[in-house]
Amino acid sequence: MWKSPKANPVNALVSLFYPPLCAICSEPIGSSAYLCASCRRKAPRIQPPFCFTCSEPFSGDITQVFSCANCAHRHLSFESAVAVYRSRGVVRQILHEFKYGHQIHLRHPVAEWLNETLRDPRLEGHRFDLVVPVPLHPARKRERGFNQAELLAQSLSARAGLTMREPLERIRYTTTQTAFDRTERMENLRNAFRLRKKANVRGLRVLLIDDVLTTGSTLSECARVLKAAGAISVHAATAARA
Ligand SMILES: [Zn+2]
Ligand SMILES: [Zn+2]
Q: Exposed/middle/buried for 1, CB within 10 Å: 0-12, 13-18, 19+?
C-alpha cells in the first residue's frame, strides 16, 4: 500500500552501486543518513524566548514564562505543545514531500526532528505511559497511504522505550484546515475525534504526536477527548511548528 521508493527492487539494486543522496541537495551521504550535514544545519531551530504552551517564538527579551497571543484568552487542553524546529526552508520542504509526495522514507529525518523534543525541558524527565498519534480519518489515510503522525509516533516510542497505542479515531472527514482562522478551525474540529471502543486511557500520562503544530487546535481537541476519557495529563510533541 505504501509507495516507498526504497521498497522498489530496482531502486534497491541501484543503491547497491550508488551511494545514497541527500534528500534536499542530492550530495552523496553516509548510508544511514537522509540529509547531508550542510542541509541538516539549515533546519531552522526555534530560539528562545518562545511560548511555554505552544512553542510560538517571540522576538524581544523575555526571560519569564509567558503565553503568546495564540494561547491567550483560549483554553488549550494539552499541558504544552513542544516543537524544536520551525516549519520553514528545508524542514517545510521535507515535511511536505513526506506528507503529500508519498516519500515515506522521509519519515526518518522528520522523526529525528521530532525525537529532539524529548530533550526539551518541558518533556525531559516526564514519565509518559503512552504515546498516541493524532489519527487520520480512514478515508484520508487510504488516500495518502499512511498516517504520518502514526509513523512518527512509532519512531519516537521506539527511541524512548514507550508504548504506542491508537486510542483515538477521527470520525469526521474535515475539510482542510489551512484556509481557516483559529475560531473556524475549532468549529471545524468539533466532534471530529472520539475514543475507540474498548480503548482505555484512564489514569495515563499521554504524549500526543503530530507532524506539524499550526494553531494547536487539533492537538487541543485530541487532548480534550483523552482527558474526558480519564487521561491524567496530555503533553504534545511535533516535528515542527508552523
Ligand atoms: Zn544536502
Ligand atoms: Zn502560545
A: exposed
